[in-house]
């Protein structure tokens, strides 16, 4: 049978010139020509086996083979002596893992015909050698052709399978042993348990554990250590601990190290460190594995101080030059954010391997020191270390976070040259890097070239599409994953697809994903919170609210999600009520939740709520956040107290561009155009760079204050001084500025000259000005164009209808309203609200729903009568854009929502503080005149915030100068 192996080797070119020595060292890595040997035929005195043993122990191939040559050449050398000599050589080949030498010696043995099929001892050595050298196929051939096998042969073959990563075959061999009645020993059991550990078959492990007890091998330290490892790998740490605690040989270092590693693998770092201390107290000599395990446990931040003590123990026991231990020290300091100590260790290391370099590079990347990471990567190459896939992943992460496309492409080229691009992790990180650099075409190319993709690959590319405004591509990729039949259980992937739903504002798609996660059992608290936010963005507040109410886990994140949904959908009052509910549950709001509440208070113009939130921010020390400071400025401005906005703004020591912009916008909102320009000038003096949003705020401020020339100048500065290309919104502001000042022809010329015909906001601004100044010709053009561009916007139809009504074209008004009805569009009813005490009271036109309705109308009638008799108030019926009798028009005017709110404000408060009212639409001319007269007659300020700006009525005068 052994001749078959010889034939196999001869066919593969293994049996060539049989010279034992080559000109180079036998361990040379020259793969061009396999080292060969030649047996000398000179008659010499037989060499004794002890001398061969001594030479083999020294690892000297040349002398070992020379001694063997003498043994073979001598005629009196016994078969037993030859067997032992060959055995020693196979052992040294196994220990040094020199497969070529082992194959040549095996071929020579077969050629000389000194090896019989029933030579169990030498065949076992050959099986062992092939297993250690990684040639599991050759080991199996020798094993299968043996007519007789010992327990050592079986153990060698099982061990070869375990070492070479074929645990299933090891289990098959174990079953064959049981079937053939081969007596098992400790090594058989230990090797089989190791195979089970690789497969993580707990039930098999328990079976072998029972067999070990039955055979009386449970006290064997090798079996026990293997069982501890097996239970650890199978996530049964309790059984592993029980076994370890029952071990008799407390001085066995391997057992201690196995248990320490088991605790670390299961995240039980406290237990691992306690056991390490117990081991040292038991006077058990620590090894490399002891320190590595203990240092890995100290990677948890709370054990960082103990890690320093272990570092001292490493120095005390003389392991400071052990590369494995030093690498563990390096990672411990990096994980504890002590990069300086890690760098000191790294740069003092005498021998650095790839793990050392990769750890330090990764540490720099994790701490945002990307330039240092890139520099160290090049230093690694210059030191002669070849970067591996771990090195490349760190460099690609650094390039992506920096947005450094050039560096990322260089790393990509390096991966291609060194055939590392096929690594799955490298491919995934390449996709992510190109996505972060905004190069989606390159990203697609890398993704298409990937031979293998996992959930991370798909999650990365779906997230990239969703985050780079390609929501449909994200959805299509998700469909492709489903088509491939992949089991999608990645929360990040689901989250990215839901983000795409948000971008698309697709309620139906959100429902579909919702059903999918429920069906797949992925409906966890994180997904629930995401769905609340998505449904809110898609305008489906009912669904968002239902998910929130039914969720078992309600924390600050879930509250923030639903509050944001309420605010985005105009339910500011409900958002503030949620804030109270949150306080009842003793859930403390974070900065994001507070931002939502500030936005809600601003939307409602609820000064009381806004002030309470401000107090909370002061108590909790949250005023340092830039977004909160700018939101406070906005909130006070929206609540009608510009002076408080100034106080917040002036109190800030370091003002970012957002704070400056918020203050400019606050001034513009209150009609203080000059002040807005002054703040912009101060901003320039402070060398703060204005952006597009800043100029939008300045232009709106100029528009509200009729500062035409200043507005034109700002528009030019934006382009010439700051090289900012105007957005459509900037052009709309410019057209609105000119239109409000009755420069309609100039505004129209800008629309035509700048090719702004496709921007609805421009035509909306122009049409509003045409209505104010009764420009029928331009009004016709603007109305027609606006309805063409946005046929589904109900606000546009109302504006066009009002323009027709103002010039008594009632047939056209009716046509517009019929068209709206046919398209299923509805007008938002005019609504005004006022804050009294802890509650915000809302009113619509002709409202009869308030509990104090009768008193409100009685108060309003009394006030109207007084203004008519004593202040000369006359209803401006032209503001009623309905084709009804004059008497009916007067009645309709008296029931406008802001007047009802004023009346309720007079009833509910007797002090002299201003009455603050908010309205969702623009104030009509009649209500504007009414409010001016009321402020003078009542000797009380009235502050009205409409859809565009603030009106401060005091002593019969409005802050807008009757220009709004």
Descriptive account of the structure:
The longest helix is centred in the N-terminal third of the chain and has 18 residues, at 79-96. This protein is elongated. α18 runs parallel beside α20 (354-366). 45% of the residues are buried. 67% of the residues lie in helices and 3% in strands. It has a six-stranded mixed sheet, covered by helices on one side. With 964 residues, the protein is mainly α. It is built from 51 helices and six strands.
What key attributes describe this structure?
3% strand; mainly alpha; single chain; 964 residues; 6-stranded mixed beta sheet
Helix-strand blueprint:
Elements: H1 2-11, H2 49-57, H3 61-73, H4 79-96, H5 99-112, H6 120-132, H7 136-144, H8 151-163, H9 167-180, H10 186-199, H11 202-214, H12 221-233, H13 237-245, H14 253-265, H15 269-281, H16 288-297, H17 304-316, H18 323-335, H19 339-348, H20 354-366, H21 370-382, H22 389-402, H23 405-417, H24 424-436, H25 440-449, H26 455-467, H27 471-483, H28 491-504, H29 507-519, H30 525-537, H31 541-550, H32 556-568, H33 572-584, H34 591-604, H35 607-620, H36 626-638, H37 642-651, H38 657-669, H39 673-685, H40 692-704, H41 708-720, H42 728-740, H43 744-753, H44 760-772, H45 776-789, H46 794-806, H47 810-822, E1 831-836, E2 839-844, H48 853-870, H49 886-894, H50 897-908, E3 915-919, H51 925-938, E4 942-945, E5 950-954, E6 957-958
Parallel strand pairs: 3-4
Antiparallel strand pairs: 1-2, 1-3, 4-5, 5-6
Helix pairs in contact: 1-5, 2-4, 3-4, 4-5, 4-6, 6-7, 6-8, 7-8, 8-9, 8-10, 9-10, 10-11, 10-12, 11-12, 12-13, 12-14, 13-14, 14-15, 14-16, 15-16, 16-17, 16-18, 17-18, 18-19, 18-20, 19-20, 20-21, 20-22, 21-22, 22-23, 22-24, 23-24, 24-25, 24-26, 25-26, 26-27, 26-28, 27-28, 28-29, 28-30, ...
